Amino acid sequence: MTLRVAIEGVSFWASRLPGWDIARAVILGEQAAPEAPSARPSPTLLAPTERRRAPDTVAVALEVAARACEAAGRKPSDLPSVFASTHGDLAISDYMCSTLATTPTLISPIKFHNSVHNAAAGYWSIGTGSLAPYTAISAYEYTFGAGLLEAATQAICEQRPVLYVAFDIESKGALASMAPSRGLLGAALVLTPVSKSEQQRGLILTTESVAECQPTEARSAAAPLVADNALAPCLPFFEILASSNPRTLSLALSRQTALNVQVN
Amino acid sequence: MSATQSAGERELAELIVTALNLEGVTPADIDPEAPLFKTGLGLDSIDALELALEISKRYGFQLRSDDENNVRIFSSLRSLAAHIATNRVTA
Amino acid sequence: MQSRSLRITAYTLCSAVGDGTAATLAALRERRSGLSKNDFGPSPIDTWIGRVPGLEEQPLPAEFANWDCRNNRLAWRGLATDGFIEAAREARDRYGADRVAVVMGTSTSSIGASEEAYTRLDPDGRYPADLRRPIIHTPHSLGDFVQHALGLTGMSVTVATACSSSAKVFAQAERLIRTGLADAAIVGGVDSLCGSVLFGFNSLELVSSEQCRPFDVERRGINLGEAAGFALLEKQAPGGAWLLGYGESNDAHHMSTPHPEGVGARLALNDALRRADLRPEDIDYINLHGTASQKNDEVEAKIVADLFPTATCASSTKGWTGHTLGAAGIVEAAISLIALEHQLLPGTLNLRVPDLACGPQIQRDNVERKARHALSFSFGFGGSNCVLVFGRDR
Predict the structure, then answer these.
(1) Record: fold of B7-87
(2) For the stretch C302-312, what's the b/e string if a residue is b when 16 or more beta carbons lie within 10 angstroms of its beta carbon?
(3) Which positions in chain A touch B57 (Cβ < 8 Å)?
């Protein structure tokens, strides 16, 4: 089965690659990555009440979401969205588990209401005033591919542009040994069912049953900068977007199902 | 500023700014007689719960959400600080 | 592409009222609640819970030991009920292991295992050896387990949009089948009791110290519950009820409070009816979200009173099961299917005096009558809404 969509907007943010322009230049070897990591982005589209409560997951997800919509020239409130994260808010999970182990009645209500996997999606909808549906998913090491496929599926089924946002943050405490992840990493795309211009990159997505998935590996200078983040499997896709040449890559959807992506 | 903060009010103002991560507000800026909620600092019901938790941790007593005096207690920094001064368990 | 109706060729649920559709039907008929005084964990807060008995003594079979934890044990209990696992394996053999997608919903997945690890960290602050299994410390624990338990190899995704999670799985699965990415899908959801939700909802002062009383004027909040539920969706089949439509939206209002006019909920409802090509007059039964929180019930009652004729019966079944969070969507989908199959429209347990916002649609008592179409409402934290439409026929 083949799904065809076009990319209207791209964005990317990592602590050492703060923005798609820098990330693309580093991937293409045109510039070195900044030595110092950037501070987490500020979710400026939120009202003060929500902004002061926004944890790192929300900050990085909203940054890339807003930039992708800008790049696409789309009003955020018009777009349904798919939010994908391998582990969700690892810092809050660590906080919840530590507090429950010691003083369970002292759980912070704000941290608890931020602990849901759909917190970033919820803040995004509040900040943009979007009533369009969102979803929030996880598929462990297959998260990026699963989210990309769900976003493409929505674009085709509903015949409207869809925002896709993927992110993971740094793990904390004892949980870090089970769910290792370093730094902040976020990436977003606006996908549309029909390409409106020659400049837009087209994606052809097909799934394939295989004996054992062999996902395309990252190989640019950006790779070591995000390799420790749980969302690192997204990088090969953005390496291909960085170059203007058509190429094909393979992402994993499960151990035995590949998502082949032809980027035109 | 329309009124000066007492020492207890300043301590509480610091707790509010830290616990709720208030942006662009320094503890000294909080007018002790201005409303904390909605129009004043723009706090809402979940902030009230968070604040009640932090107050219980710091001052050792529970603020009850079903207390009918809450509107008065939470009306300003001054009234909340006065309530804490009367009810605090920890020194 | 138009959304299409799908056959529900098998379904099951396992909650505090019992394992399987027959036990659930009996509890509904007998008005027997599954709620009990909270005895979960070493220092239980004063509330009632919908606890599934026996999970502590039922480890997963050895071949699935890597996934063993309370949430996946509950998933396994659900799969083993009503012959669901056999139906799923038949579908696997019929379509191919790579052609049956797994789409699971949960709110907290197996965070309970991480919570337990933190109570038993070794002197170096590391996890105890028996819990050093990364897959149970991540949200996809559930989807990954169900896929392996059923011997499937295609797509497996975990949806986590709080209390709408296992309603939205029907929508995602329908899209996968419509675009041809799968021929059938196992949808469902599992959430199990854990400290995070008991103490978390307690911190928001949303839990009730008495049995929850949905839509009652004196309701005092929610009771948490745990449950598993599953459904098998297929494009074509000789029998089974129908998934006729779904609607999704969100409130864009507040992380933990519904929109006062239910703007998002109404959008989801309209979208669901449009896809099913039905009007409010066509709906015989609505299984409401009805958590017994002050705000949810008030908003939901208004929507029903505004939009549905008096002949539509609506109720909340949380008084039987408690609020099973990420599993609520599938549990209440299954109850809606039971209602259609047995022509028993459950009322609302523990409802004595209805809130002023309630119209005549909201039923206290069970109603036995012919019913063809049912809706299930699921609304969650973060303002995520989902409405499902089921039919006995098309």
Answers:
(1) 1.10.1200
(2) bbbbebbeeeb
(3) 106
